[in-house]
Amino acid sequence: MVKVELKGVTKRFGDVLAAGDVSLQIEDGEFFTFLGPSGCGKTTTMRMIAGLEYPDEGRVFFDGEDVTNLPSFRRNTGMVFQNYALWPHMKVFENVAYGLRIRKVDGAGLKKRVDDALELVHLGGMGDRFPSQLSGGQQQRVALARVMVINPSVLLLDEPLSNLDAKLRVEMREEIKELQRELGITTIYVTHDQEEAMAVSDRVAIQNHGVIRQVGTPSEIYSFPRDVFIATFIGRGAILEGIASLSDGGPRVDLGGFTVDGVDTASAVGDGDRAACVMRPESFSVTEPGEPSNRLDGVVEWSSFIGPYREVKFNVGGTTLLVDVPPETETPVGGSLTVYIPVRRTIVLPWDEVK
Amino acid sequence: MDLKKTIRTLKRELDAMTAIQTFIAYAFLLVFLIAPLVLMVGQAFVYQGGTSFRWFVDLLSSPEYVSFTSRGGRLFEVRRGVMYLWGHDYGILLNSLLVAFFVTVFCSIIGVVAAMLMGRYRFPGKGIFRVLLLIPLLATPFVNAYIIGKLFNPRGGLINYLLVDLLHILPWRLDIDGLVGVILAQTLSYYPIIFLNVLASLNNIDPSVEEMAENLGARGLRLFRTITLPLFLPGLAAGAIIVFIFSLEDLGAPIGFTGARANPLSRKLVSYQVYSSFAEALTGSFSPKIAALAVIILFIAVAGFLIIRRYVNLRTYAMLSKGGRWSPRLRTPSVKTRVAIILSLLFLVTLASMPQIGTVILATSNWAISGTLPTKATGQYLGTLISDSDVTRAIVNSLLYSGAAVVITVLVGASIAYVVARRDIPGRSVLDILATIPVAVPGIALAVGYFLLFSSKMFRGSILDPLLDPALLMVFAYSIRRLPFTTRAVSAGLAQVDKSLEESSMNLGADRPTTFFKVVLPLIIGHILGGAILSFVYSMSEVSTSVTLGALREDRVPITFFISQIVYGVAAVGSVSIGAALCVLLMAVQITAMAISNYILKQKVAFLGV
Ligand SMILES: Nc1ncnc2c1ncn2[C@@H]1O[C@H](COP(=O)(O)OP(=O)(O)OP(=O)(O)O)[C@@H](O)[C@H]1O
Ligand SMILES: [Mg+2]
């Protein structure tokens, strides 16, 4: 298992910046995820770690050793491709045995290790099939077994679940997480599904236009987005624009019809600046919490029953907010409603047009 | 910084295997394609020891080559009950261009009409026509033209007998010969090239595009002109330029007609001129004037090819279609129209497969000497294929040359395809073009270049010296000329192998050669074999270099040279029926090959087009 480090890694394709000055440390045994919208450079960044792409600038280190120019076949990474890339002309057994044969393992040792790997992904006895005779989920497991069998020092997973249906996706991601925990292998994961990223990762890096915007644990990123892009990309709820004024307690934002107090997580908002105010729907409550809070009085515009909660479009002084309330709350359209949100959950960020 | 990066990239991309592949490809193309042609171009500018345009000026100003008034010939002239269709002689160079032009126009008309009928209408017997329309692709070099000449002979030709004596449809007998004969023979053998290209484009048109236009009110001709035609035009252009080049370099028709009728007009073509000058070449000298002539057609062919290729690349509309039905629009016309369609296709198919049918009849009967119709079946001519030692030797020679050529062309073609598709090295687009350009290089130009280069001082007395032994040169000529087939077949295979299949292998620790042999090769082996079979077939029936370089040593002649000598009437073995028997053998080889690649390898290798 190794520690992976990127220092100032940059990669361009013509005018497109696929990785912009990416500097990161991924700890030994960590489950680390790159999350970002399509085309932001996640795959490219991962491919540079795998040695399938080479940076224009910057260096890549494995356990402090510079591997920037090492070809892929010398790096001992195990990459699972988005399309699985199983070799259609080889049976499952041969697909999995491939890396071992390259490493000159053969005979009984080879058979045992391949069988163990197939067992590990619950595919025992399927070795005799061709990839085309497997379901999508099974193919995905073969792809996983194929890299696990060589004991890679880093496991690289590029949107491994994107071809599966919703239910299988949840099942497989739990299996992967389980396996990773058991083996303690450094794992780098790429996805554009935020829920998936949140569910499995120790830490997440949010990337946009090649640049890493924030690195942190899922809850850090969710609760304390560093900029408007992240706040928009992660989680639900409206981002409101206003003018900030600073007091000793923290920033207060004038949102037109009303004002709220909040916390400046990026410490970048100045007095009189345009500011963005992020209030997650689930941070609201209908009873006053025992901490400093903002009280909002408004009118219900529309409400819908989701199950665990009721989603309400809520108009305060001409501004519409999204608010989750307990499912049993009475919210007739046009009726008035009062909700509270703790100050520490009211995030104030410098305003920025999201591109 | 940028230089450093380039060097770094090069160091990474140019591993041992890529380096070897690239080196072999370039070396092969340099020695057997570029050097001979460059030398030929150089020679064409040599005059009395200096450099001069003299030969070109000579050619273009002499009426023998370029004349704006007829130097003889007959066209639509009726004399004593015979209508003469020979064409007029406007000088050798203009004749060649005019013939190629008319062949291209006629092939385009026939090809487009046939493709529209096959691609847009439903009628009984369509499946059979699909096969019959392709019969002319079976190469029966020289014999095909000979048979057309024979059928349209005013004295005892079968067609004249049928139309005039038996059915009294025509008031005079037809005498199709000379340049018109060449045009007819070439049109009948080349129209499938355009037919296939246009049909492929038609099938590629998203039906909803046409439906949309109809929906907006476009109908019939207007729909055809505004939507359908522009969409298949690239396919038509691609097929048309190939037909033009093939006609320009064709030797089969001029030699075949000369054999049938001895009308000197059918020889007044550039290809024939270059061919006949190889007789002098035996003495070791070669007229720079002929080199200049070859340079002119080389230039026209290559320039035309590159221009069209560019246009086709620009105009290949990707059909973006989301959902909806994706089967070609087929209309079921009225009964009357259906009958008309079937009759016209029947007429075309009968006319176009006359050479192939005639070849079989010629080979299995006494038709060559019996007059209008054969009177007796015989197996004696097919028998000579194994009993006559000269004939057998020609067959063995062709098999050996073609076999060797296939090995070379597969090694080089697969390397080029792989490097072009997968490696990021400078100059790979040059490699790509060089591997395609042989389609456009007239075989006779290549033959002249080979002769000039390899009989020069540098190679004199070596195993490549054609005056000593032309066998190896024919092998290399075949492999160069068929290189585009293999390269394209392998490229098509590689296009289906996702790059990630290779990357995952390298990711698991396999280096590039291991990855190539364990992952890539097994996945494209079908395409490689398909390309190899195609190259083999087309090497067996190769004409231009076989009849020129092959002439240089008697015991090295290939099949096609042998056929040309028989048809021309200069071979010792005599009967043209033996030539036909050899053509039957060629057809059998082709049919077997097509069957293997269609049914065993499941490859539909598209074999002609830009
Ligand atoms: N080989 C290439 N040549 C040119 N441009 C490329 C290449 N590979 C990637 N790009 C471009 O670089 C950018 C980043 O691509 P990348 O595949 O890393 O995105 P991604 O974040 O993985 O997206 P997705 O979620 O859609 O897979 C994109 O704009 C893409 O078009
Ligand atoms: Mg990606």
- The succession of helices and strands of chain A, N to C, reads EEEHEEEHHHEHEHEEHHEEEEEEEEE
CATH architecture of the largest domain in chain A: 3-Layer(aba) Sandwich
The termini of chain B sit apart by 40 Å
Which pair of chains has the greatest number of interface residues, and how are they split between the two chains? Answer: A-B, 29 and 21 residues
Q: How many runs of DSSP E, i.e. beta strands of chain B? A: 5
Gross morphology of chain A is elongated
Structure description:
The complex is a heterodimer of chains A (355) and B (610). Chain A is α+β, with helices and mostly antiparallel strands. Chain A has 2 domains: 4-223, Rossmann fold (3-Layer(aba) Sandwich), CATH 3.40.50; 234-350, Beta Barrel (OB fold (Dihydrolipoamide Acetyltransferase, E2P)). Chain A is 24% helix and 34% strand. Chain A has helices spanning 42-50, 92-102, 107-120, 136-148, 166-183, 194-200, 218-223, 228-233; strands spanning 4-13, 16-26, 31-35, 57-62, 65-66, 77-80, 154-158, 186-191, 203-208, 211-216, 239-246, 251-254, 259-261, 274-278, 293-305, 310-316, 319-325, 336-342, 347-350. Chain A has a 6-stranded mixed sheet, with helices on both faces. In chain A, helix 2 crosses helix 3, helix 2 (92-102) runs parallel beside helix 4 (136-148) and helix 3 (107-120) crosses helix 4 (136-148). The longest helix of chain A has 18 residues, at 166-183. The two termini of chain A are 38 Å apart. Chain B has 610 residues and is mainly α. Chain B folds into 2 domains: 2-35 and 397-575 and 587-608, MetI-like (MetI-like fold); 70-288 and 300-378, MetI-like (MetI-like fold). Helix content of chain B is 69%, strand content 4%. A 3-stranded mixed sheet of chain B has the order 3-4-5. A two-stranded antiparallel sheet of chain B has the order 1-2. In chain B, helix 3 (54-61) crosses helix 13 and helix 20 (471-496) crosses helix 22 (512-540). The longest helix of chain B has 34 residues, at 389-422. Mean pLDDT of chain B is 85; it is low at 318-325 and 605-610. Chain A binds chain B through residues 50-52, 54, 56, 69, 71-79, 81-83, 85, 87-89, 98-99, 102-103, 146-147, 150, and chain B through 5, 8-9, 12, 498, 500-501, 503-511, 514, 518-519, 522-523.
